[in-house]
Amino acid sequence: MKSRIRELRQLSGRSQAELAESLSVSRQTVNALERGRYDPSLQLAFIIAGYFGLTIEEIFLANKE
């Protein structure tokens, strides 16, 4: 799954560690999300969407393979 988390995080001027703290996850989780190596749970996807004030669909894009 592709996401816009890195783009949105950078636009907000936050580090991975700062975003991780705000989301109550580890920095490694944020890194894995940004690199597309980890698909978030539905609950975490809603938390991320709420944090950025966007819908899940505006942040996460399904790979079409």
Automatic annotation (TrEMBL):
Gene3D superfamilies annotated for this entry?
A: lambda repressor-like DNA-binding domains (1.10.260.40)
Q: This protein's superkingdom?
A: Bacteria
Keywords of the record = DNA-binding
What transmembrane ranges does the database entry give?
A: none
Signal peptide segment:
none
Tell me where in this chain the HTH cro/C1-type domain is found. Answer: 5-59
Xref: CDD domains: HTH_XRE
Pfam families attached to this UniProt entry: HTH_3
Q: Which GO terms describe its molecular function?
A: DNA binding
Kindly provide the name given to this protein in its UniProt entry: Putative transcriptional regulator
